[in-house]
């Protein structure tokens, strides 16, 4: 049985090593994406004008009036002092052609005091330019920048499958790391004095043993992040009921009327403030998101600069039908069934933000460790493969010499 586990671990490791190496290194970096992005691109993050900020709704109106080709889809409702207002946009439909206007950006940095656009970029573009670098790395982490094929997000699915293989391979690796009860201490040891192959082997085996629980968690959450709707939510729903998300809410599908003029941002925000107060949400409205494809609004509640959620299970969100303005769903951290709370925990666990700054530090360290384990695993496989080939050549040479002597 052990020999089968060895073969399975070998081939699963070889199949996933390159993907995990890239995901580990990029994950270590994007744990600090906001800070690194701001350091690289201060003009995109810091406002030129030092003055009182206009309201976010007014800024969105000015941006859309200045460029009628675009529509603001994600609008932060508060701004950190001295920072730009960063909003996401999408092209509107050109009535002359029936096609979307061609624009080469989807994110704007706006001076909150004047409404002037300080910067534009295509978030997630395949580009190593300084303005694009951090979004490029972030998207590389979960899609590898692979294209959609026939409506299928190939990169997201591929890395989700890699996560599944990684999850099961983690269990196999733990079994193989403890060949005997008497020698269990060796599975935690590092032979630094030996160096060479011995240290490479220990870094791979013992390194994986020391952080095995974290590796298993990262594997599981990577599957949950990439394949939540097609795989993870159906499995979780077998054990615990799940509240619908904005992506699969039947209330939205039942009452959506894409032909109708959507409720204004002002009207939805006013309702969200009232609904948030009724639900005892302490944080102010932090962002307003309009999903035109779903004909829905979502309003998040958080302080300026805390859009990712810094500690705990993230931020509360309320979901609204854009046709009727009706509240049709919500995601409130810590509320709902056990399954709902499990799903809420996936991004905070994967990003480390569930534990704040210490959690992000730990996730960066684990990302580097994943890259190291992938590299050392490949090194071990290459060495053993070379040894097996050399042994086969020696055996063949001996057989030839034996046949020559006998003849």
Automatic annotation (TrEMBL):
Record-linked InterPro entries: PepSY-ass_TM (IPR005625)
Transmembrane stretches, start-end: 12-32, 157-178, 209-228, 361-382
Keyword DNA damage attributed: no
Name recorded for this polypeptide: PepSY-associated TM helix domain-containing protein
Keywords assigned by UniProt, alphabetized: Membrane, Transmembrane, Transmembrane helix
One Pfam family recorded for the sequence: PepSY_TM
Organism: Caballeronia telluris
């Amino acid at each position: 049985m052990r020999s089968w586990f060895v073969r399975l671990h070998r081939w699963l490791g070889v199949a996933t090593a390159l993907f995990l190496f890239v995901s580990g290194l990029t994950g270590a970096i994007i744990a600090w994406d906001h800070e690194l992005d701001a350091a690289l691109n201060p003009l995109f993050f810091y406002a030129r004008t030092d003055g009182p900020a206009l309201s976010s709704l007014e800024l969105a109106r000015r941006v859309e009036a200045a460029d009628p080709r675009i529509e603001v889809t994600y609008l932060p409702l508060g701004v950190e002092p001295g920072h730009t207002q960063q909003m996401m946009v999408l092209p509107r439909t050109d009535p002359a052609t029936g096609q979307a206007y061609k624009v080469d950006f989807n994110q704007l940095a706006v001076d909150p005091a004047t409404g002037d656009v300080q910067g534009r970029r295509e978030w997630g573009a395949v580009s190593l330019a300084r303005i694009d670098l951090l979004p490029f790395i972030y998207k590389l982490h979960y899609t590898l920048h692979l294209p959609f094929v026939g409506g299928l997000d190939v990169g997201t699915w591929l890395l989700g499958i890699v996560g599944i293989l990684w999850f099961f391979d983690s269990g196999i690796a733990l079994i193989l790391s403890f060949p005997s009860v008497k020698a269990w201490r060796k599975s935690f040891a590092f032979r630094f004095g030996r160096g060479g192959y011995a240290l490479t082997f220990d870094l791979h085996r013992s390194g994986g043993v020391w952080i095995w629980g974290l590796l298993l968690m990262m594997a599981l959450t990577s599957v949950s992040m990439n394949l939540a709707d097609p795989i993870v939510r159906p499995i979780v729903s077998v054990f615990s009921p799940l509240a619908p998300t904005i992506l699969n809410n039947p209330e939205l599908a039942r009452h959506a009327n894409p032909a109708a003029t959507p409720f204004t941002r002002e009207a939805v925000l006013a309702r969200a403030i009232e609904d948030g107060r009724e639900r005892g949400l302490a944080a102010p409205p932090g962002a307003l998101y309009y999903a035109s494809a779903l004909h829905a609004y979502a309003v998040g509640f958080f302080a300026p600069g805390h859009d990712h959620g810094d500690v705990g299970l993230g931020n509360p969100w309320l979901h609204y039908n854009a046709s009727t303005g009706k509240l049709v769903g919500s995601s409130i951290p810590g509320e709902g069934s056990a399954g709902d709370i499990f799903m809420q925990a996936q991004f905070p666990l994967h990003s480390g933000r569930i534990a704040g700054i210490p959690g992000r530090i730990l996730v960066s360290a684990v990302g580097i460790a994943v890259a190291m384990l992938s590299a050392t695993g490949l090194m071990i496989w290459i060495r053993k493969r070379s040894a097996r080939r050399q042994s086969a050549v020696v055996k063949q040479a001996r057989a030839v010499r034996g046949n020559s002597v006998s003849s």
